[in-house]
Request: fold
Amino acid sequence: MSNSAAPTIGVFDSGFGGLTVLRALIARLPRARYAFLGDTARLPYGSKSRRTIARYAAESARFLVDRQGAQFLVIACNTASALALDAIQDAVSVPVLGVIEPGAAAARAASRSGDVLVIATDATVQSHAYFAACRSKGLRALEKACPLLVPLVEEGWTSHPVTSEVIRIYLDELNGQAAADGLHPDTLVLGCTHYPLLRSLIQHAVPAGMRVIDSAESTAEAAFHLINGSASLSADANAVPSTEIHCFATDSVDKFERLGSRFLGHPVGAVELVDLGG
Amino acid sequence: MSNSAAPTIGVFDSGFGGLTVLRALIARLPRARYAFLGDTARLPYGSKSRRTIARYAAESARFLVDRQGAQFLVIACNTASALALDAIQDAVSVPVLGVIEPGAAAARAASRSGDVLVIATDATVQSHAYFAACRSKGLRALEKACPLLVPLVEEGWTSHPVTSEVIRIYLDELNGQAAADGLHPDTLVLGCTHYPLLRSLIQHAVPAGMRVIDSAESTAEAAFHLINGSASLSADANAVPSTEIHCFATDSVDKFERLGSRFLGHPVGAVELVDLGG
Reply:
């Protein structure tokens, strides 16, 4: 693609939760063309082996780069970021940004005590990717799987008393564990792309003074700096008059179209079905 | 397989929820060899197209018949029963029993008013398979998707106040809809293999006098009668001294082994990983 063409940012998730990352990207980089792929035929990645996830993620990344012309890739999926970032970087020749590193970096910037909490899906917690990314920055991280939060968001109960109660139970368990471990956490990382939709309930439930880090926002911030640091991409960015969004899914576009707008904050439009095989 | 060998009953699910059906089968037919396959690499079936589900289910059925010697197949999966029973029957030469028909038959036997309620996953409700099976028996059925119940069971909250509250909310909505439609339901069908673990909470939440039908039990009952009606299978059944169970999964046996015992009611033992391709 020449510099005069609009820059295309590819955004990839196993489902449509990553639309919260796309939403944050658009807020930070409105003048770009976005191609979002949800690999809905093969979700959830969380229950699959690392080898399988790496193959699926690499195929998805190649679709965005080779077939949609993406010049920059955002892996808006915690599981793929945790288990397949290397495989994706090997599969394509454009810069690739995951969600975990920016989340950990934002926690590092926010925390004074050096102790942070991370809530995420079971698969992300089992990978301990946030723990490792935080440790490499000198932070002590305690992770907790909160498997009910994704279904509660998908049920649309984002401001429901049941959801408040579930969040309270999870955070009580997590804070109790932190106290038992002698930690003094002052920062909570939302390590799942669905959780930004629960941000106000979570903000309400955390102890006074605790900072809540939304890794979607942190990732958008990191993408902004990486793209502005790249001469060709930032030149392109100035050539695009407004936001353009193209959404793709590998199966069952109904749920994507039905729920996606809630994640993106405005209608996703028509979702195009693509076949990646497998 | 000769008549002197032990009869093998194949039980298939996309995950491990179907272990509640296996549990009911063992209670009714303890003297048999069971081969259970959870196609965990490719779950959930619910979000996939009918063609894809039919292919996966047929491959799984062939594994149980051709490689495990199953002489009778129970499809312990509502989605596969709803969307792929024909494809499975075409793929193998042994008798095949799904969970929907027995559930509807038990509702027919239980209901005096002729109006029944069905709770199930989103995919099962969207297929309207229970509605159709009930209508063919002269019943009016009102179906409701209860997408939070499976995650609540998998979180282990089977007697938790949050789960009681979620059940109350779902049943209030369902009973309100039934009243608005002019129905007088006296029977509730549990149309998901996870729901038997919530039976006591559900029993507590339904209006007085409402019968609760567990399709796992109804399916085991139907299997018992079909097998006793088959000379070769019932002869075999008398030749087996006790229950033998072999569990197989297509990916990630950890969760299967961890949660499976809760569904089966006793330890599942070692789960063997098998590769069906795709």
Notes: The interface with chain A takes residues 40-41, 43-44, 47-49, 52, 147-148, 150-152, 154-155, 157, 162, 165-166, 169, 251-252, 255, 278 of chain B (CB under 8 Å). The mean pLDDT of chain B is 92.
